[in-house]
Amino acid sequence: MNAKVWLVGAGPGDPELLTLKAVRALREAEVVMMDDLVNPAVLEHCPQARVIRVGKRGGCRSTPQAFIQRLMLRHARQGRCVVRLKGGDPCIFGRGGEEADWLAERGVEVELVNGITAGLAGATRCGIPLTLRGVSRGVTLVTAHTQDDSELNWQGLAQSGMTLVVYMGVARLKAIQQGLLAGGMDVDMPVAMIENASLPGQRECRSQLGRMDVDAAGFELKSPAILVIGEVAGVASNVLGLNEQGLQAISCKS
C-alpha cells in the first residue's frame, strides 16, 4: 500500500470509537500527520510510523493548510503510505473533501475513512438522541465559523423543525442565539452545550435558547464544544443510562 494518502477520521476522542478500517490504515502507515484534537492514545496502532503533528484548532496558532497539503504530497511522491489523521470525521468540517481533491489532481491515490463525529458521540453520551420519533425527524450539522465570515440562514434553520448541532460555536454563542431568536425559534427551546465530547472530561450544560449565553459563561464553557439545539436536548440525561460513566452534568434551567 505505497504512494497513498489515507484521510482518516479518528473520532471525537474516545480511542475505542476508532473504526477497524482506521486501525488498519494506521498499522500500515509510514507517516502519520496528526491534528491537535486527535487523542494520542490512537498512536498505539502505528508504532512504526513517523508522527508529524500538524495542529489546526480554532482560535489558536495553526499549521497552514497549504503547508499540510504540500507535506502530504511530498511524502506520497516519495513512495510512502501517509495517514492524515483528523478528529471526528474528515468530511464533517474537517477539510477532507478539499484535501482529497487537491491530492487527486496531482495524481496521488486517496482514500477517505469515516470517523464518528463529535456531535453524534457527545449527544449520545449525554443521553440525547439527535432524532426521536414524534420529536425530531432529522438533524442538521452546521458550523458557526465560516471561511468568509458570512452568516448562516438562521431563519431557515430556526423554522426547519430539525435538531441543530452547531460546531465551533463557543466564541459565537451570542450571535447564534440572536440569529435563531430573530428567525422565530422559541426562547424556551432546550439547548445542550457539550464540551470535550466522548472524553473522560466531557461536561454538559443544559439550558434554553434565551439564556444559553449567560449559562455558558457561568459554566465556563470552553472549546472544543458542540451545541445541540432542539426539543431532544430536553431529554433527561439519564435516558440512555450514561451518567454512570462519570459524566459531569449541570442543568442551568431556571
UniProtKB/TrEMBL annotation:
<comment type="pathway">
    <text>Porphyrin-containing compound metabolism; siroheme biosynthesis; precorrin-2 from uroporphyrinogen III: step 1/1.</text>
</comment>
<keyword id="KW-0808">Transferase</keyword>
<keyword id="KW-0627">Porphyrin biosynthesis</keyword>
<keyword id="KW-0949">S-adenosyl-L-methionine</keyword>
<comment type="pathway">
    <text>Cofactor biosynthesis; adenosylcobalamin biosynthesis; precorrin-2 from uroporphyrinogen III: step 1/1.</text>
</comment>
<dbReference type="InterPro" id="IPR050161">
    <property type="entry name" value="Siro_Cobalamin_biosynth"/>
</dbReference>
<dbReference type="InterPro" id="IPR014777">
    <property type="entry name" value="4pyrrole_Mease_sub1"/>
</dbReference>
<keyword id="KW-0489">Methyltransferase</keyword>
<dbReference type="Pfam" id="PF00590">
    <property type="entry name" value="TP_methylase"/>
</dbReference>
<dbReference type="InterPro" id="IPR006366">
    <property type="entry name" value="CobA/CysG_C"/>
</dbReference>
<dbReference type="GO" id="GO:0019354">
    <property type="term" value="P:siroheme biosynthetic process"/>
</dbReference>
<dbReference type="InterPro" id="IPR035996">
    <property type="entry name" value="4pyrrol_Methylase_sf"/>
</dbReference>
<dbReference type="InterPro" id="IPR003043">
    <property type="entry name" value="Uropor_MeTrfase_CS"/>
</dbReference>
<dbReference type="GO" id="GO:0004851">
    <property type="term" value="F:uroporphyrin-III C-methyltransferase activity"/>
</dbReference>
<feature type="domain" description="Tetrapyrrole methylase">
    <location>
        <begin position="4"/>
        <end position="211"/>
    </location>
</feature>
<protein>
    <recommendedName>
        <fullName>uroporphyrinogen-III C-methyltransferase</fullName>
        <ecNumber>2.1.1.107</ecNumber>
    </recommendedName>
</protein>
<comment type="similarity">
    <text>Belongs to the precorrin methyltransferase family.</text>
</comment>
<dbReference type="InterPro" id="IPR014776">
    <property type="entry name" value="4pyrrole_Mease_sub2"/>
</dbReference>
<dbReference type="InterPro" id="IPR000878">
    <property type="entry name" value="4pyrrol_Mease"/>
</dbReference>
<dbReference type="GO" id="GO:0032259">
    <property type="term" value="P:methylation"/>
</dbReference>
